Amino acid sequence: MIYEAISFYALALFLTFFAYKTISATNPIHSALYLVLTMLGLGAVFFSLGAHFIAGVQVIVYAGAVMVLFVMVLMLFDLKSELQAFSKGMLSGFLKVFSAAALAGVAIGVISHSVQVVDGASWGVGDPNADVTKYLSILLYTNYLFAFEVLGVLLLVVAIGAVALSRMKGGTHADRR
Amino acid sequence: MSQLLPVLVLSGFVVVFGAAIIVVASLLGTKAAKSKTKLETYECGLESDMSGSTKVPIKFYLTAILFILFDIEIIFMYPWALSFNDFIRQGYGLYIMGAMGVFLLIFILGLLWEVKSKALEWE
Amino acid sequence: MGSDIFEIGVNFIKMVLIFVMMVQLVPLLVWVERRGSAYIQNRFGPNRVGPLGLTQLLADAVKFLTKEDFMPERGYRFLFLAAPVVALIPAALAFGAIPLSHPIFVEPFEWLGQTWGPYQFDFQSYKIGIGIVFVLAVSSLAAYSLMLAGYASNNKYSLYGALRASAQTISYELAMGLSIVGILLLFNTFDFSEMIRLQSGPLSFHVLGTVYTFDFLPNWGIFYQPLGAILLLAAMFAETNRLPFDLPEAEAELVAGYHTEYGGIKMNMFYIGEYGHMLVASGLMVTFYFGGYTLYPFLTPGTVSSWFAGSTPTMTSVWTSLILHVVFLTKVLLFLWLFIWVRWSLPRFRYDQLMDLGWKTMLPWALGNTIVTAIVIFIMRTSW
Question: Which CATH superfamily is domain B4-116 in?
Answer without folding.
Answer: NADH:ubiquinone/plastoquinone oxidoreductase, chain 3 (1.20.58.1610)
